[in-house]
Amino acid sequence: MASPREPDASPRPDPIVGPHALREVAPGQRKLVAVLAADIVGYSRLMEANEEDTHKRVLLLRATIIDPTIAKYRGQVIKNTGDGFLAVFDSANDASQCALAIQYGANAMSAEEPEHRFISLRMGINVADAIFEREDIYGDGVNIAARLQTYSEPGGIVVSGAVADQISEPAGVSVVDFGELHLRNLSRPVKAFGLRIERSPKPVADSPVRAQGRPSIVVLPFRNLASQDDAYFAEGIVDEIIHALSALKELFVISRGSTLGYGSEIIDVRAIGRELGVRYVLYGSVRRSGGRLRINTELNDTESGNIIYSDRYEGELSELFALQEQISTRVVTTIAPHVREWERARALRKHPQNLTAYDLVLQALSYLYHMDYDSFSRARGLLQQAVTHDPNYAPAYSYLAYWYMFRVGQGWSTDAAADSIEASRNASKAIERDGNDALALAIDGHVHSFMFKDFETATRLLDRAITVGPNSAMAWTMSSATCGYLGEGPTAVLRAEHGLRLSPLDSHVFWHEHLLSQAHYINGNFDEAAAWGWRAAKHNERFTSNFRILAASLVAIGKFVDARQIAQRHMLVDPNFHLQAWADRTPLNATTRDNLRQRLKAAGFPE
């Protein structure tokens, strides 16, 4: 995008195409245009609440803001629907400036209205080689604009990469990189960006404790007894149960990521108990058929191999969350009967208002854990859709924050600073909606620490994350990182060890191992730091942060040949790395930073 500026007060005339050229396109002809698709958020709800009032206000919005603004930017309304419109423009810049002006106007019109009467729009823009007919236009590019609109948050705009390349970035408008969205019925992904204006509608620590003395449990993936396409649904039910159990300090709960390799038909509970160090194993099956749901569960004792209980839960799909609560409550009252009722209630997530949003989050998680870029991109689009369906559902924002944080960590980000801000923004939105969301609190804390060096805010958020999510591996490990940045080596080691204990077989285990290596390095345990660094390198051969700590640890113990080999591997992954730029951005304290820099220089890292 070009340099920032405000929406034009008086749009410039197009030097090639006249202001009425769009109206002169004959039926059946093609023309390259910018297509703006818009939809009124919650139109059916507004009409149901007060049909006559809503109709009048929508007509007023069109007459005073939408139609005059489209005319001002030389656009043409192709068709009006009851809850939206489709318009075309001669240039992408005109379309985007018009969309922003309409959003500003719509927000101003509803500024004094109570939340339930807020009229806001979602918009999508794409450049399309469209086929014109008398009252409509057609083509893949038109469909893309309409589908991008469904990914927009209320009051926002989503544009394709083709549009983003042609427009200016207005001041006061944040531009969010959505990555590649996989739109319905399209074989190729579409690069997309969000334009978000300031005023948008409002949507209605302790030290580690060892597992000894606490009931320990792992919840294995449930078998899906319906179509294979429903596998994500079974995984999602497990995720909700784990979340409810993990928030209880009386239990020790292994993370979801460490269970993904146990999805086979034959389950040896004793072997699982030995491998993961847990006393209990819960697993089961799910069948979803039409509007009905059946869940079978089995709780096993890993020491004896005996089945403690076997239950069946049946009900309507709309009763899903009540069934999940029954399952988690049954587990708790069996293995930790002393846990008080209010503690169990606090541990439960707030239910989504929209089952579609819940389903979209489950689908996103199934892609997010695959750890490849294509699946990762699909997850972003699904989470964005979940937000549009239910702006109050905290987990959708938590996992969006995780998506941006992980995107930066994997080196897939084209703008790490902007993505870090977006991670923090989404985490804050999750916390606003559910103050007990440990993942959101941990991510927000880590972003403040790692990217912004605001350690006071980070510590407060991370301590809160551990309090409300004592079994959150991410919270413990991220807290270890911040303790390390502050030079608190012993605490950093303890917290990283606890995070790794909670997530021993996670696909992200390299990250936990790396931060334990970093904690040992900061604490002066260079042999231990090198040992954990080697383990992390084995699990991820492109993780540059780990290579740096490993190389410095090897120099510290006199293994210069190994250190230089690690430096060479680092440069193959990141050939543009220089120590000065790294030193300027690292959150490590001055003493640790300077010593680390000298050791990295000795290993062969370029100054």
Automatic annotation (TrEMBL):
UniProt domain Guanylate cyclase: residue ranges: 34-149
Species in which this protein is naturally found: Bradyrhizobium daqingense
Gene3D superfamilies xref list: Nucleotide cyclase, Tetratricopeptide repeat domain, TolB, N-terminal domain
An individual GO BP term: cAMP biosynthetic process
Record-annotated membrane-spanning stretches: none
Record-given protein name: TolB-like protein
Short name of any one Pfam family annotated for the protein: Guanylate_cyc
GO molecular function: adenylate cyclase activity
